[in-house]
Amino acid sequence: MSLESRRSLRRSRRNRKTRYRQPRFLNRKRREGWLAPSLQHRVETTLTWVSKLIRFTPIDLIVQELVRFDLQQLENPEISGIEYQQGELQGYEVRQYLLEKWSRKCAYCGVENVPLEVEHIHPKSQGGTDRISNLAIACHDCNQKKGNQDIQDFLSGKPDLLHRILRQAKQPLKDATAVNSTRWALFNRLKETGLSVSTGSGGLTKFNRTRLNLPKTHWLDAACVGKLETLKVLTNKPLLIQATGRGTRQMCGTDQYGFPTRHRSRIQIHKGFQTGDIVKAVVTKGKKIGFYLGRVLCRASGSFDIVTQNGRVTGISHKYCQSIHKKDGYSYGF
């Protein structure tokens, strides 16, 4: 009824041509700092695990990786102008961005694990710019071979490669865009924890990792964020955590044509287990003899499926299953 009432109000205002009047209610204004649900989810998930770690470990400081501008202003509040925009790590940051964008491979020949150089797709001698969309990563041989040729001439005999490079050059890093949108929201929420929060940059992270002679991995990059003198690595097998959600509210399944096929049961717990629990099963007889560890898919019949590291195993009786971790919306692995 409320929706119908609002709809009639909108229609009457339009018909009377009185849209200049102030609306009787305003439900379309986004609050300050609003984020899309997918981005807000990233912030909330990060805060969830920060809160868990604070409860179980003695944490005094949180270091978050932000863009280079933040670190410069913290170190030098008087910095301004072009010095503020570029800074000491300006070229370093651009190179890191390009390495990620081009998957650390030569854009022209695809070679990897060799020294790579920043290359202008449209040469500066012919009017090209230093914009990110005009930069690529190339090996020394390809960079020298291309010289100051335009990419249209250099790849005239390889139209598929030319089309791929031009398309990829215009594509931003989606993950970088998401981080760029959420970094300040996360920073402000982290300060609400009451802990000391400092910032670092991507270039400083790589500098620390290179100085400490550590391999390139996401978890070691996270350990190298900010000002760091030494780092003692106690494991080479980090726990990988992925948000999987808590299921779906959908009550009716559909077939390939979109027609309803069956209604879902409201009962989620079967034989003491719930879909998403992490279980181990030691099957001692039958065709499924063996040891299985993974997430369980429950059925009312008591015949469960277990998603293991090697694939999905079907038809495991609940009698062989032992719960290790109850469903909490996350999956865990190594």
TrEMBL record:
InterPro entries: HNH (IPR002711), HNH_nuc (IPR003615), NA-targeting_endonuclease (IPR052892), RNA-guided_IscB-like (IPR047693), RRXRR_dom (IPR025938). Residues 93-144 form the HNH nuclease domain. Residues 1-21 are annotated as: Disordered. GO terms for molecular function: endonuclease activity; nucleic acid binding; zinc ion binding. Residues 8-21 have a biased composition (Basic residues). Keywords: Endonuclease, Hydrolase, Nuclease. The keyword Nuclease applies. This is HNH endonuclease. It comes from Planktothrix serta PCC 8927.
